[in-house]
């Protein structure tokens, strides 16, 4: 008969470690491994926490920008302060994520725009400069960092007139560097053109505006500024070609409709001018300049009934505009409404009692 073999019991979970038998060196190794694991988990979590602060800051900045653009400077300032705290936390948690530095630097610049005193402005701009310097030092081949420094120094030049030339020299140096690092990005060519234009280097500005347009033919800022230069050089037709390119691509850009309308008005092409002024009024019913341009054109075209309606509308908003009221009186006389014209002359005399011209009119009859 075969002998039965005796089975030994083994643990289903494998070999067990008895902590009682561990030596001090083993305890040190375990402690070290635990520390490494903790640090790894901690630093893996930091970017997520930093991003959370960044997103909070970005939302606060967007809210502040809304108030700033609507001229609610005080409320904008408060929101920018909250955004700063969030961005500072993001920078502290992720010091090598330069996007966080960049946003914080931009907010400091905007806060410098809001505060009144030069000392306060420079305080914020110095903070913006320090952040931009960190970015440029950490990655000196990034054109955005060079561009940020140029923006800061350009703003400093506005704050301290006595040091204007020195700051503009720095702004120009960093702007050139940004445009050279990324020669194929129209934004950096355009930014440098802006600076050269501001410095009075018209030929240099034209060169960079054209360089930007060679890369992107639909840059409205480049077309608009280049057109202004061409008008000053006595080249209205060339200027108009740039204005029309803006109008065709983006008719709501700045006051391009008014500019085109005034060009045709100067050429005495009143019907065409009227079209563009009418579009400007329709696009923005609160645009006083558009209304004035429209009624002035109607006046020149001797369309008195239409002109009268616009004069009355404008005088309701600008009752103390003597020139406007005089034009209204003229239109009334052209339509034979001498009674209403006399009443308007009396109003002029009452509003401007020290003006002998209106006082004389008040005793006369049209």
How would you describe what is shown here?
With 366 residues, the chain is an all-alpha fold. Helices cover 77% and strands 0% of the residues. It has helices at 24-69, 73-93, 98-114, 118-138, 143-159, 164-181, 186-199, 202-215, 220-232, 236-249, 256-266, 270-283, 288-300, 304-317, 322-334, 338-351, 356-362. Helix 5 (143-159) packs antiparallel against helix 6 (164-181) and helix 16 (338-351) runs antiparallel to helix 17. The radius of gyration is 34 Å and the shape is elongated. The chain has 17 helices and no strands.
Q: How does the helix and strand content classify structurally?
A: mainly alpha
Task: Quote the distance from N terminus to C terminus.
Answer: 147 Å
Strand content: under 5%
Helix content: over 70%
Low-confidence blocks of residues: 1-11
Overall shape: it is: elongated
Q: What's the total number of strands?
A: 0
Task: Encode the helix/strand succession as letters.
Answer: HHHHHHHHHHHHHHHHH
């Amino acid at each position: 008969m075969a002998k039965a073999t005796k089975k030994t019991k083994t643990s289903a979970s494998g070999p067990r470690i008895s902590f009682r038998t561990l030596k001090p060196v083993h305890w040190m190794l375990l402690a070290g491994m635990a520390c490494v694991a903790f640090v790894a988990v901690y630093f893996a979590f930091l970017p997520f926490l930093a991003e959370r602060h960044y997103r909070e800051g970005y939302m606060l900045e967007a809210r502040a920008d809304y108030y700033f653009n609507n001229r609610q400077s005080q409320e904008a300032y408060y929101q920018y302060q909250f955004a700063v705290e969030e961005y500072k936390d993001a920078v502290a948690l992720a010091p090598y994520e330069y996007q966080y530095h960049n946003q914080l630097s931009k907010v400091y610049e905007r806060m410098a725009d809001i505060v009144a005193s030069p000392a306060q402005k420079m305080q914020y701009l110095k903070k913006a400069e320090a952040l931009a310097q960190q970015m440029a030092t950490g990655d000196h081949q990034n054109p955005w960092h060079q561009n940020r420094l140029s923006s800061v120094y350009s703003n400093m030049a506005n704050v301290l007139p006595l040091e204007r030339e020195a700051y503009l020299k720095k702004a120009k140096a960093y702007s050139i560097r940004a445009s050279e690092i990324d020669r194929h990005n129209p934004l950096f060519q355009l930014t440098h053109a802006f600076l050269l234009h501001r410095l009075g280097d018209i030929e240099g500005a034209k060169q960079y505006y054209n360089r930007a347009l060679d890369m992107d033919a639909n840059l409205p800022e480049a077309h608009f500024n280049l057109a202004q230069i061409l008008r000053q050089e006595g080249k209205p037709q060339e200027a108009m070609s740039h204005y029309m390119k803006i109008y065709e691509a983006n008719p709501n850009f700045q006051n391009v409709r008014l500019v085109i309308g005034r060009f045709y008005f100067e050429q005495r092409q009143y019907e065409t001018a009227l079209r563009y002024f009418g579009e400007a009024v329709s696009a923005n019913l609160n645009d006083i300049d558009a209304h004035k341009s429209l009624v002035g054109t109607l006046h020149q075209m001797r369309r008195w009934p239409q002109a009268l309606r616009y004069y009355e509308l404008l005088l309701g908003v600008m009752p103390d505009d003597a020139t406007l009221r005089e034009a209204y009186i003229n239109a009334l006389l052209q339509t034979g409404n001498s009674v209403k014209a006399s009443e308007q002359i009396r109003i002029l005399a009452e509003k401007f009692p020290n003006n002998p011209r209106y006082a004389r009119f008040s005793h006369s009859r049209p």
